[in-house]
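request received
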Amino acid sequence: VTRWAEVPGDARPARLPEEAVDGLVPAAVVRPASVALVQECVRAVAARAGSLVASGLGAHLAIGARPRRLDVLLRLDRLDRVLDHQASDMTITVEAGCPLPALAGTLAAAGQWLPLDPPRPEATTVGGLLAANLSGPLRASQGSARDYLIGIRTVAADGAVVAGGGRVVKNVAGYDLPKLHVGALGTVGVIVEATFKVRPGPADEEAVVISCPTIAAAARAARAVLDGDAPPFWLEIGAAADLAAGPGDGVAVAVGLAGRAEEIAFGRERVLAAAAALGLDAVAVEGGAALRTRLAGFAAEPAAAVLRLATLPADVGRVMEAVEAAGAHLRCLASAANGVVRVAVPEAGAAVALVRALRPEAEARGGSLVVERAVPAVKAELDVWGDPGAGLPLMRRLKAAFDPGGLFAPGRFVGGI
Amino acid sequence: MVCTSRMQRIEAVDIDNRRIVVQAGIVNQWVTNAVRAHGLCYAPDPSSQPACSIGGNVAENSGGPHTLKYGVTTNHVLGLELALPSGELVTLGGAVEDRVGYDLVGLTVGSEGTFGVVTKAVLRLVRTPEAYRTLLAVFESVDGASEAVSGIIAAGIVPAALEMMDRLIMQAVEAAFHVGLPTDAGAVLLVELDGLAVGLDAEADRVRAVCATHGAREVRTARDDAERAALWKCRKRAFGAVGRLAPNYCTQDGVVPRSRVPDIVRRIAAVAERHRLRIANVFHAGDGNIHPILLYDERDPDEVRRVLEAGREILEACVALGGSLTGEHGIGVEKSAQMPLLFGPEDLRAMALLRAVFDPEGRANPHKVFPDAKVCVETRAPRRQVPL
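response:
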């Protein structure tokens, strides 16, 4: 422990259980208060041939494979400033440890927002949002982190600050380095600053919930909404009880609507008509944003494991049926427009069995099954990522180029990277 | 030189999932043509879309007028097939949206051919909007028009497109196409709103109000598809019409924060005056992506020298205003020496590391993008525009 107590950034022992990563307890936790200190910290860990995991508020540390080793947990939550909001350019630059509510508050004062809705936003920092590529229901119409990130600053394995992109909304000068770090789980550098393009916030939100007797009926209803005249703001299929459609074992489709009153009224009327045409009951619910936020939380809810199956949008119903066939007590939530099906599995043994049962077909169809979050007992039994495809050799070379000493979370990413 | 123009096949169309798989040499416009009957389109629409290829779009991360709302090429590419300089063919990403691992597709898009040769792309298709409102706002001055651009953005309106043309370019376009542009005006804004028909008229009224506030003397509205098409023809064929103004021209591509459009337009005017050049402006004002067109005669060596100098000064002004050297045309050879204006040695070193992952020997499109100590490139003539 003494070796690591010398690392700059107010080194202290880890607080448990929240500062352990997949059961691994770091020898020290540091909380540097400046980018310069992050650089010193990275250099100090590198000089001791150690490894580190970057973290913000710790809400998403259960994502990824168990690191092979962990000496220092590098917490960035002291780098929490909004640096520059250019409201008239609709861009904002923030430090990596900036919590999403602070970012949202600054933007809201100008009627703007960053339309990304990860689980547990109150405990999510910008760095975590990017590193874990978090998203929620809004992705159906608004895209994901990679679509909004226009500039980044990182601390590289040698301690240098490396910038990519810029602060303008359209820019093709040099390589798109920001995209290197989105979803990379901090394995190729420590994100210390990000610039986003943002959008005008919606005037209002609402939701329509369609009750369905079966998954197949729900998939048909979701398809009808997608192909209808009013493009949904978001579109989720799940258990009726989860989607505010009342009690019971049924399935429901929740359709998000947004805009000014007349736009919402038009969308509501079209969705209700689409449901009626299929002989399904549907009801408009107020507080569309609240329902959306609750659904976003599904990915991080307490469970032995939350699995994420990626498929084509038209195959969502088939995947949900396969999950249902595999276990009666599983809960499922699908982002129907993006082809993402999440499954919450209450028990570790069942999670391992389910991954083994469903992953081969998911991958054979060009998709994936990732164990998005899980307790250590699940991670010990299987590869959380599965096959990353033909790009794996390039990914290994990329990791070797940017982190030759295995400093950044070794083993946490795909293929043991 | 490897030319992909014979690789033009559409390999798969998936209407349900809104995907299309195309070979790299297919012309951008043909992609939309293939799916238009299903109410779908491929959103990125560079002005050269009847002539440019998807492979080229991927290499440059091309934009276009409608990228203001819909995003650029990288937002619409889900998968790539890439021939690495080693000769190996790799498939990156695919039709399924969520990929596992690093975003190799996102890194390859916009890499200007320096990672290898893109041979195939899986593209996302989007719904054709239900309705459009296309407005032409006429201003006495470029200043007024660019202030209106900032005003529209500040009002929280995201038009599908927000384009500006100045008097010089209008005169050329009018001479070529006779569409009734106000050639005595200082500048016009072409504003397109799209989406659901409901609410669109209210939004168009808000745009008209902002334009009026900033001194628009008139705001015309396209009454039907034919009028809308005529307005877009002016904009997209503007470059072709420039031939009426001068024997040669050089189009620059720079970016400023969108609130700084008025500043860069004034600086361009000052550069033109200082170098005794005519510079026409037609550009994507909504996202601050400027395209000053520098007119010259290549038989006049002094004018050629002044055009090159003026182009460099305009890009330096973009960077000084917090912008970038290029919004959609790329760095290539011409701007590689200016990369240190934007990026420090550590940033450039990281880009070199990334390049070496794909192309360790630097054989794919060598000597592009980065300042190269071993090769001293002196640009003697502006980049020629390919005639459409």
